[in-house]
Amino acid sequence: MSQPDYFELLGLARGFEVDTQSLERCWKQRVATVHPDRFAGASDAQKRVAMQWSSQINEAYRVLRDPLKRAQYLCELAGYRANSDAGAGLDMTFLTQQMQWRESLEQLREQGRTEPLTELIEEIEQDRLTRQTQTGALVDSGQWDAAIKSLHEWMFVEKFLQELTSVRRALKTTE
After folding, report:
1. Considering the domain boundaries, does residue 11 fall inside one?
2. pTM of the shown model
3. Which of 85, 88, 121, 139 has its CB surrounded by the most CB atoms within 10 Å?
4. Spatial separation of the C-alpha atoms in residues 164 and 58, rounded to whole Å
5. What is the CATH number of the domain that holds 136?
6. Residue 59's domain spans which residues?
7. CB-neighbour burial class of residue 6 (10 A; exposed 0-12, middle 13-18, buried 19+)
């Protein structure tokens, strides 16, 4: 079975902005039509096809409900690999910002206090929202090279936020 367009599969317009309620409603409708209970008396081949469709529908929902995965998917649909050369093309401003964040993290680790770490997390969460909006606008306008660059920066920010959250959890257990 070939890979269908996730937007078409769920009956949604292709674009970065997705109404989450519509997404959920469409997913529930589609997945209900291929639910295994509907094929209890069907042949093994029909059951297998229904299971494949169910799996594809669930994967489409998983990708489209996550803004970062949705942006990556839209870039891939346009022929741009989101993970290739992730560090290439990042500007000095962003690279400098990364270094400053890393230095701040190391200082906060040494201090062992969660309050300043929480402030850093809030700052970076705001940056993530800005990058999400920027990337979405670039994707929707078809500016693929700029969208990929913005997406790579957003991916770094997401990964760094996960690291910060882990550090904060670890520090809370030692306080």
Report:
1. yes
2. 0.86
3. 139
4. 30
5. 1.20.1280.20
6. 6-65
7. buried
